[in-house]
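thread: overnight batch results

M.L. [08:02]
morning all. the overnight job finished for the chain we discussed friday. pasting input first so we're all looking at the same thing
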Amino acid sequence: MEAARDKYNIFPPSSTFAVSKPPVAVSAAITAPNLFGAPSVVKDAPNPFALGFPVRSKVNDQVKKEMISTKVSGNLGSGEEMDVSTQQMTNGSFKFGTPSKLESPWRDVEWTEARRSSLMKTVSSHRPSCNEMTETRVLLLGPVGSGKSSFISSVQSVFNGRVTNRAMVGSSPNSFTKKLQSFNIRGQKGEDVPRLVLCDIMGLSEQEMTGLTLHDILSVIKGHVPEGHKFSPDQPVRPETEGYVKWPGLKDKIHCVAFVVDASKILKYPKGTSTIFKQLREHISDLGVHQVALLTHIDQLSPDTAKDVTHVYRSSLIRDMMSKAGELLGMSTSYIVPVQNYASELDVDVNMDVLLLSAVDHIMQYADLYFQDHTGKAETDIFEDMA
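M.L. [08:03]
and the structure it wrote out:
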């Protein structure tokens, strides 16, 4: 049993992701570390990062104390942003202070129909910069409820010309997506569509034994995981898994990872989130895969932006949350773009489309770096996977 477990524990014993030995008898099922959840039998382990996040109920008070002098949005309907110390937070609500709004945008965007059309043409005509590839595969990765599935549906809506919910979205604290699903973005009949595949997997969870393992995430990126595979933390992907891709080619692998984080929850994520994200990024980088990030739910931060998305780059709060997201993920803000997904809307909006298409273009640029790095290396990659 120990030998089997060690085979699927991809970290050395000293790693913060190493699996602790359970103090009770276990079944023959092979276990793997859960990124965002800890089995109750080891909840008192001395290292809080050994198996994932601590329980949220033990974190809230500490998080509130640490969130000092942070800018938060004004009360609903005010159309303004306020400076406030989050120590004023009570039961999830905020008290508000003096208005704060930037006179000039911190990123320049042309909010016009012409810009939307230009971006549509750029994204639709994009082809992988590798002759043997016909499409770009992007993995969306983030906590439960961060907006991964909503982003897929929103991008599809842009190309459909109407709001659709192609990737089903849930509202429970547990991940609605349970398996690997790949979505080819489709367009209206007769129109060019991007050779883009957005891959959705279950969210990283804070709940016990419900989230992804790091081993499974890396297996998806390497191209070993079959389409439709249902994830289970106590049954990691392995060669015996049904449909396991033993010798994945470039077409099976992930070419870019897009982290998705909820702007309205960045200051509420449990302590240790940053450590997990940074270690996750380190392992993904070791595979030669570039990463970007999407900052979602920006409308929940700024009433101005909720009413008119063109205010996104005039919001000092969203700018500050971009910096917080960079700290959380361990990446420069130049890799991060804000997005506003379609939620209650019935019709598409030019300005929301511009923001969404800009994000897709951003992702594809970094995916191209992967192809540039791996052109002509297909055979080498296979032998590396064999090692």
